[in-house]
Amino acid sequence: MSQDTPKISVAGLKKSFGSKTILDGIDFDVAKGESLVIIGGSGSGKSVTIKCVLGLIRPDEGTILIDGKNAVGLRGGERDALMQKFGMLFQGGALFDSLPVWENVAFGLIQGHGVSRADAYKQAIDNLGMVGLHEDVADLLPAELSGGMMKRVALARAIATKPEIIFFDEPTTGLDPIMGDVINDLIVHVREEMGVSTISITHDMASVRKIADRVAMIYGGKLVWTGPVDDIDNSGNPYVDQFIHGRADGPIQMDVRRP
Amino acid sequence: MNPLAPIGRTALAFLASTGRLVQFAALAVMHCILPPWYPRLVLRQILEIGYFSLPVVGLTAVFTGMVLALQSYTGFSRFEAESAIAGIVVLSVTRELGPVLAGLMVAGRVGAAIAAELGTMRVTEQIDALTTLSTNPYKYLVAPRVIAATLTLPILVAIADVIGVLGGYVVSIGKLGFNPTVYLHSTFDILEPMDVISGLVKAAVFGFLIALMGCYHGYNSQRGAQGVGTATTYAVVSGSILILTFNYFVTEIFFSV
């Protein structure tokens, strides 16, 4: 594989649910070690995009290449092999609430990689350490954790299997600004430490400025702007301008009835 | 507006959902048969579905047996056939009421619990999370529940059979003044192995259906608290109806044997 093969390459991605078109031709590449952040309003198709890449949703049309190899419609062993490359931080954490924290973190190791429970426990503690959590929390249940701790445990779980690509779904949503910044720092730290490629979706601009190399703005099922994060303030794109300044007036019309 | 259109739409929707259900069932069975299995999870579900259902099923069985003895006495004493009561009680309980009532009670208790748990997991993206952690949700969530329910229901029903017959015995001896020895003798005299076996086969079928409906509706739950609530209701209602439907067909199969 050549050095310039993108880690992820998405082209012409389309997806409709019933008569509602969510994605209408999405194209982007993510290089090895790069962080792409997709921004856009609620319901604009950010989540659907990363779920297509992850293989949780099957796109209607389009190609998704991971390391230059097709990733759409894989089954069985091929799917499993591809999944080993992925880690995902879900918006609500999606921790398994019947399992203690350490087993959540070690889940992918025990189930997917066949690591023994004793070894998996040690690795889980290491991973918890990496997100700044002490061994004390290992035996707690997810219901006993605060929102910020849940996110950190979920992050520890996402990195535990040493993935090559990590997806972050709204990593700071629902957290106070300080805890949000802690999570952003952890994401940057994890990326530097592991050299992974990441795709994040968010509408938190503080988070975008901190974790993004490149930003893509999604609107109406298409990417309306893609560029380096440093260009975001003078993109010259009315959609991006409206979004980063959070204005109700502009080319993006929210589906709201006005009084 | 074509008056036939709504009928066609309803028929198509019905066929589509039947197709989805059969597809789900086929996948579930496939993952029950093919490794890897999760024995720890199966054991936990056996405990959850079987052991914790014992009080409910036991109470249902004992009162059913008791009321059967009373009611059949009311009927049979009118033409002096009281001696048939022992037989009526044991046959009704083992062939019919044991499996059906235990099945319905478990459908309410376990089918609802499975649908609520899987529905919540779906809504909070825990099912997606399983997939991203290289774990097949059918294998990890559906198969253990289906296996456990199919294995456990016959055991529950066997226990319900014993308790139900005991209930009838207690009423017949204590209230109706039967001779204990004669009553027991006529109970075991009339009972054939096939009576019990057909009941246990029914129980296994019901167990499969209960877990399947719980898993199917939970797995495909819509978003939000309402989605999970609807999934739970559907799981119990469709599970109960399928139990009653399959009860007839399994009975018919054993009837002609």
Provide a descriptive summary of the structure in words.
The complex is a heterodimer of chains A (259) and B (257). With 259 residues, chain A is an alpha/beta fold. Chain A has 2 domains: 169 residues, Rossmann fold; 69 residues. Chain A has 8 helices and 10 strands. Chain A has a 6-stranded mixed sheet, sandwiched between helices. In chain A, β7, α6 and β8 form a beta-alpha-beta unit. In chain A, α6 packs parallel to α7. Chain A is globular. Chain B has one domain. In chain B, α3 packs antiparallel against α4 and α3 packs parallel to α6. Chain B is built from 9 helices and no strands. Chain B is mainly α. Chain B starts with a helix and ends with a helix. In chain B, 85% of the residues lie in helices and 0% in strands. Chains A and B meet through β6 and α3 of A and α5 of B.
Short description:
The complex is a heterodimer of chains A (259) and B (257). Chain A is globular, with a radius of gyration of 19 Å. Chain A has helices at residues 46-54, 76-83, 101-112, 117-130, 147-160, 177-194, 205-211, 238-245; strands spanning 8-17, 20-30, 35-39, 61-66, 69-70, 86-89, 165-169, 197-202, 214-219, 222-228.
